[in-house]
Amino acid sequence: MSKLLSQNGNFRNLIFSNVFNNVASGIFGIFILWAIHAQYQNVIYTGIATAIFSVPMMLSFLIGPFVDRSSKAPIIRISRLAKLLIIAGLFVLQMTDAGVWVFFVSIALFSLAGAFSFPSSTALLREIVEGDELLAANSLSTILGTLTGLATGIVLFRLIDDFNNIYIIILGALLISVIFGLLIKSKAPANEGKTGIRTYFTQMREGASLLRRGLLLHLVSATLIFGVFGDIANALFPAFADYHTGSAVGYMGLMFASLIGGMAGPSISHRLGRRFTLPKILVFCLIVEGAIRVVFVYAMGAELRHGLVAFGLAAAIASTTGVFWQTMMQKLPPENMLGRLQTLRITLYSTAGVLGALAGGWLGTILEINTPFILWGASVIVMGLSLLLSRPFRNLPKVNELESIKLSD
User: Fold this and answer.
1) Tens digit of each residue's pLDDT (9 = 90 or more) over 155-206
2) Residue from 233, 261, 255, 250 nearest 300 by CA
3) Domain harbouring 218, CATH code
4) What is the predicted pLDDT for the residue at 86?
5) Residue 248 has pLDDT above 90, yes or no
6) Could you tell me the pLDDT band of residue 60, with boundaries at 50, 70 and 90?
């Protein structure tokens, strides 16, 4: 992995731009939900805010053809600069006590910028990194992101109630991301040919037809299960942490445990990928992760330190799953359709997330706070078991042998 980082300058610029963008996005996601909870003490508001994160992503299917036909580097630069300006605007407006709508609008615009940034960086990574190095590239990206997030988490642990300094940290991370983004070069030029509206929608239909094929349809359907229940839990997480710990420090402690755990998976993924096939890795990790998430709920009720350990372990296994899942979804589709597939997948996942977040805000008013988190763990187990129903999935090889796999049943 270090060889890839030292010898591929374009990858190095992309990964550092991604790392600081992800740090800023992660801090923003954690902080903004806590800020809304702390200021308004209303689970409906946090549910709406969580849903708004996903609403712009529901339109990702419109972005896919644009990404596939365009040079990726300019899209990355502009979207991350837009994030910087959005946070700067929120920093100024929140001083005026304009109301909760300022948070909602800022979340929507921030997420819209991300809807352009994520598929562009995913597609560009495949352009600039050889297929057999994708697993190492994704692992390295996750490790560096987690390490940077860990360092930032230490600061946040002390500053969670100091809103002004958190805004400054987010702005600083985005500024660094933009600087590295200016150094990125798109290896492949923008696609030539017809660019009319009819061609645009034809390309969208091509992406949809690819997604309807047996293996990819089953993979995406499985993630929708996780999307609904995961965002139900995410919408209620500030209230859950407040209920069990009674302070912002407890909330940040859980986030901190998640960051530490998140480093473990990517660090061993390369060795796992050489020894085991994808079905064995993914099904095992999902079932174990789901079981630990259920245990986590009961551990929080017993003692905080036990909850922190369980949450960190779940994050470690989830990060392992994430590295393999991301690599698989990068290698399965044809390269010239990767943007369309990614954005269609994001659209479906985000739609499920919106439903989950809105349901979370409502369920938080009628259910005992632990119940949605138990359901979250159970949904991860169901996701893992459901993958076994697909014969093409069961026949997948090791991740580095995935290039030869056909996308049809």
Assistant:
1) 666 666 677 788 888 899 899 999 999 988 865 554 545 555 555 566 666 6
2) 250
3) 1.20.1250.20
4) 94
5) no
6) confident
Give the range of the structural domain holding residue 266, as residue numbers without chain letter. Answer: 2-404
Q: Is residue 305 part of a domain?
A: yes
Tokens at 193, concatenated: 């040919």
Domain for residue 141, yes or no?
Answer: yes
3-state secondary structure the chain: CHHHHHHCHHHHHHHHHHHHHHHHHHHHHHHHHHHHHHHHCCHHHHHHHHHHHHCHHHHHHHHHHHHHHCCHHHHHHHHHHHHHHHHHHHHHHHHHCCCHHHHHHHHHHHHHHHHHHHHHHHHHHHHHCCHHHHHHHHHHHHHHHHHHHHHHHHHHHHHCCCHHHHHHHHHHHHHHHHHHHHCCCCCCCCCCCCCCHHHHHHHHHHHHHHHCCHHHHHHHHHHHHHHHHHHHHHHHHHHHHHHHHCCHHHHHHHHHHHHHHHHHHHHHHHHHHHHCCHHHHHHHHHHHHHHHHHHHHHHHHHCHHHHHHHHHHHHHHHHHHHHHHHHHHHHCCCHHHHHHHHHHHHHHHHHHHHHHHHHHHHHCCCCCCCHHHHHHHHHHHHHHHHHCCCHHHHCCCCHHHHHHCCCCC
pLDDT tens digits for range 114-135:
888 888 887 888 788 876 677 7
For the entire predicted model, the pTM comes to: 0.66
409 domain-assigned: no
CA distance 52 to 62: 18
Answer yes or no: is 200 within a domain: yes
CA distances from 67 to 9, 61, 84, 180, 239 (A): 22, 10, 21, 20, 38
Domain count, the chain: 1
Distance CA(280)–CA(285), nearest Å, equals 8
CB atoms within 10 A of CB 155: 14
CA distance 15 to 4: 11
Beta-carbon contacts of 379 under 8 Å, excluding residues fewer than 6 positions away, are 225, 226, 228, 229, 230, 290
Whole-number Å distance between alpha carbons of 252 and 243: 14
